[in-house]
Batch of 2 targets.
Target 1
Amino acid sequence: MSTFKFSREVILGTIRANVPKQQVEHPQIPVFQHPDRPLKSEFERRLQQAGGASHDVGTMAGAESKLMTLHPGAKVICSAVPEIAGTRRVEKVRDPHELADVDVGIVRARFGVAETGAIWLTQEDLVVDALAVLSQHLIVLLDPDQIVGDMHDAYRRVRLDETSYGCFMMGPSATADVEATLVHGAQGARSLNIFFLPPHSAPPAN
Amino acid sequence: MDNANQVDPAKSAELFILHDQVHEPMHDRFLWATMQRRDAEAAAIPEWEELREIASKIKEHTLTHLDHYLEAFEANATKRGAHVHWALDAAEHNEIVFSILKDHGVEEMIKSKSMLQEECQMTPFLQSRGIKVIESDLGERIQQLDGQPPSHIVFPAIHKTRKDVAELFARSVGTDPNNDDPHFLTEVMRNNARPRFLAAGAGMTGGNFAVAETGTFMVCTNEGNADIGASVPPLHIASIGIEKLVPRVEDLGVFLRLLSRSAEGTPLTQYSSHFTGPRKGGELHIVLVDNGRSRRLGMPDFWHSLKCIRCGACMNTCPVYRRSGGLAYGATYSGPIGVILDPTFDEFKYSELPFHSTLCGSCTDVCPVKIDISDQIFKWRRVMAKKGYLPLAKRLSFAVSGHVLGHPEEYHAMEKVAEPAIDYAPHFLLYNRSLNPWGRDRELPQIVKQTFREWYLANRS
């Protein structure tokens, strides 16, 4: 590895020798005002454009019944949330390969972003990162009061120094690589349904 | 002059255009539709132009302090448990990757899309050393199965029809050659890739941005394939160009608002994923790659090209790119951004590229980080002229126009002379098919009877 150590010095040395003389200041990023932004409806509209869907499930029972309506044939439901038990608890998963057979993954997002319809998921929410992408379908619980306006607001909320994985997920997996035709379910989740549901204050079901 | 190693984009473009009546018009149509979606998204954001300016300034700030930010990134990523490597060039990048894979006994690796790994020709290198490499992005996988490089930095197989893909899959994975439904073809590759994700000993990604203050890098995909490669195999290796640095987390808000809108006309890619240190139970290696970038930083006319965030908007808007197809450029990077990047790797080989442009300036207008692309194309033409890399026909005409444009009295005389001459010139000289394939399907504008100078003298003086 000593040659690579040498490369580090060569690269930094060449940069120092070549760096343009003008010193450009880091610009201030202003707060862009969008007064009276209807956060929830904009979020829902953008989510729909991205191929996702949202549901006002109201209660935990409503969430359970919506889950059954959306995915009646699901055999393996792996849950990372206390509100829905599922058939497998993600906390019990030792290795991401164990998630290869998951039909539906369930996770709670910390917040959503109105501008894009994206939700923020971290390693702590997913417990095992692969739950976000190996599950055939995803259900994401979201408190409708936790929707921020734009991506600037979003980055003020994320703590990249506190998680090893964080993802703004905007709808399900997609591709347009064959004749620019949009197809959902390329590699990750085939569908993404958001359930609007504030976190339940009762102790988690075991 | 020996032209054996020089790429000839005009000739290759001609083959693409003449191939049939389907491919080139389709390519043109798809990319123009993407451009129109981009325009609509940009117009919907009142602060769009301000964002472009801020993004440009953040990149300029970072590049003028690049040594500082690279050291900060290295320190913070290391603190979080990542292994950071430095590669002077493509060969060293490939050696580093190979040695990591070898140390971990990896025989099969699955990767997501990375233009840097293309630039380094990493896949053929690893395969020659016995490592099986699978592309997981659908477009890249199509190109890999067809033995072709990507033709577009965002849409690798955009030059192919659904029929091409159906026939390719029939040959390579045994599907029905007559089923060319994109949903079917996508599903075929989803099912083909899943077992490979699960079997792979390592996943590789690129990096769209690297954040100095946290040691984070982020990857944007629509398929989620980078996330599978990073979260399932025990080992994740990321190749990141040293120009991908940004100072702070808040900077990402600016770039993410611009990137996918410029690239595809969508507010974000479906997955915008942030990696800070290894995942629980995993191992993370980051290879920081120079490969000529630190040298480019010292080129006063060209260092701004390092601001590029690889959105491809300049390609989608370019009338020459849309009709040529990306493979015509014979280089890793195609379209207007390729024209200004490729000669920094090999001036002679890519000396024809700066002439594969109309200098219409649309690329500069749409660039989300305000790179002066068309000005740089023009400056590269001067570099090629000075080095004597111009083909004879171009040398003669540029020599004449260079002299005439430098001498106003001769220019005014020429204007009147050229007017009758152009009546005869187009079809056997200016738009001669073998000398200038761009003349096909195009006509010269009508020459006005009155020159601008005559009009000005008559009306304004």
Target 2
Amino acid sequence: MSHDSRSDDDDRLTRRHYVAGAGTLATVGIAGCSDSGGDGSDGSDGSDGSDGSDGSDGSDGSDGSDGSDGGDSASELEIIHWWTAGGEQDAYQALLDGFREEHPDVEITDNPAPGGAGSAIDTVVQNRVIDGNPPSTFQIWPGQALTPYTDEGLLEDIGDSVWDEEMRGAYLDGVIDLAQPAGDLVAVPINIHRLNNLFFNVSVLDDADVDATDIDDPQGLLGVLETLDAETDVTPLVHQTQSPWSSLQLWESIFIGQQGVDDYQTVIGGDVSSLEDEVRSALDLLASYLEYIPEDAGSISWDQGNDQLIEGNAAFLHQGDWAAGQYSSADGFEFGSDWDMVPFPGTTGVYQSVIDSFVFPTNNPSPEATEQFLNYAGSVDAQERFNPIKGSIPPRTDVPMDEFGDFLSRQFEDFQNSNTQPPAIAHGTAVAPAIQSALEETFANFNENRDVDAAYQGIVDAF
Amino acid sequence: MSSGIFAALIRDTGGSVRSDGPDVDSDAAGDEASDAEPRVRTDGGTVVDGAGERSGSADAEPSLRSRFRRSRFLESIPFWGPPGVLVLFFVYGAIGWNFVISLTGWEGLGSPDYSSLSTEMYTQLLADSSFHAAFQNTLVLLFAFTVLSLVVGLLLAILVDQKIRLENTFRTIYLLPMSLSFVVTAIFWSWMYNPSNGLINELLRAIGLDALTQAWLSDPQFKLAAIIFALMWQFSGYCMVVYLAGLRAIPESQYEAARIDGASTTRLYWRVIIPQLRASTMSAAVVLVVFALKAFDFLFVLFGVNPGQSADILSVMMYRVAFDRVQWAYGSAVAMVLFAMALGVIGPYLYLQYRRGEL
């Protein structure tokens, strides 16, 4: 073979030159394509970039006219959110239904980024924002969680366009503050969950002759857990240690219960070392609590643990009031007679808030529709549709509570009577994401080794 | 890089010209390694040397031979050129860019500032206790997982190779875990390891070993071991298949010869068969190491971004730092360490293969 190829070398060479030429052309062509792609995304119009990165957008013919005609693009609203689990999904659909009724001309592109508590959404949204290709709006915790965006001016000030006088009057001041972490109002809170709840199984406590309302402080709860452990077969406290956020939020509640909200504000302000003894004492108590959690806490999720409470195998659960949704969907497990809730001992009058909000990213592909949506999200109608299903209370204080059921109505009352609504570390509102993540790492280690010294150092280093 | 490809191309040419002769080349891979090695090396050596000389003095002495070879090189450009350029741009270009980012201080959602580059992120890494833990765990995982999987895979392969009944069924059963995604196996093993109703502890209790039951995935003493065991379960089947292929390539006559010489079964495998499986071991080990470095999915499904210090590995740390904390530069630095580790494993392997003329 090799002899043959040498003999008709000349003839082959020419053919090969054709191939070579074609190859070169292809290379140049590819380079050319990537060049023009680069130009497109460099330009100020973000919608060009979306063609490449988002298949669903690219297939839509209307994209081509985006650049020239702003009004046309306003008819398509892309929402990124993480509400994909049962009740959340239904609540979100109810919200969209309400919006469609008011704005039938707007087409909604639903873009869920599933993953509990936004574990995946950050990655999606951050990448798109950095690429200059943000969605119309996305779900995010207000407060410090917004700071990576506000630091770079990536969120539009909606103080005038959305937050009119009427809306400002309807929100509590603490919530409005969270919507303006850097001065400008940039977010519309749509729901509020309470974090400092202590749920319990009524009959389990009755059998053990324990009255949850008698527990005055976090130390007292430890005594009750000890009693339950000694005298009954139930798991005293349902908890999960698979991921660290549950321990982190429990520590927050213990700290507030022991030291009050002022010291808590000092800590989230970053001054941990001035409160060394207080922080350590809360960690000590948390370590003691962890003696009374399920054996398989490291292998379960919080809702699997909650099933134990529903089945009567466990007594207490510290969790945000999203846990109540599981009780209402359980058969024959009624509020008041089967389960109940008290504020975490020592935190009566505190409504520690976990909030979801929507924002207006700059470079917006559909400014008009986004504004319509945010206006709607801040309205009574939207919050009345969304929150009863979500199991949260509306941030607006003027929403009628007819649809909300006994438990949420009581929560709403507590909310309006609360002295203070501090933000939550484990749910983004209290500290910037980098600090939150470092604290979560600290508590992941604490779940493993319950080493108070290391955890204290970790908390100091996180800020 | 191009000179490497060039040399490889030239050597290929040499090989094909020579291949009319005795078929030493094809056997060299697994069989008679010690015998084939020097011959191949000599062949490769001279050609590479020639290539080196020519690149220096090609213009000075344009002999017919070198011109021919040279034109062959040019002619082949259209075939490996475009993919080469694409790989160069998208793979090596991205790695290079990542390295540059790791030298900046890029944080948050703005743009990186390329004007002041420093190795600050790397010095920060050296002082970071969670990096130490992650690095150590990665090494332990890498080593223990690879060795255990190879050993188990080899044992399985030898057992399956005994001309047993239902051989194909067993092979399928052992290989099946490999085809599952990490997400599936992670959830599956989290059930297995559940301390109160998981299969592992139930089994221990059933045979009266209550004392050995553990909270496998929450006790920091056992966490990493439990993960390594689960990964080993998944990948030893792959090792088995690789080894089985290696075993099948060994001629029956060698078994017979060893038997006639009076070797026991242990001795037969230890002295005759296993030494010939070097190529299989190498290729399986490289794949395993790469999977160990990428065990991210498994840990992420089990624990999210915070597995805790006892099970944290570099790939999880990289994700946590970059996407949870928006510290892109620091995440890039972790990624570079990970890249260096992967290169540290694959580089010597490729070099060895190259020296042995198997590349």
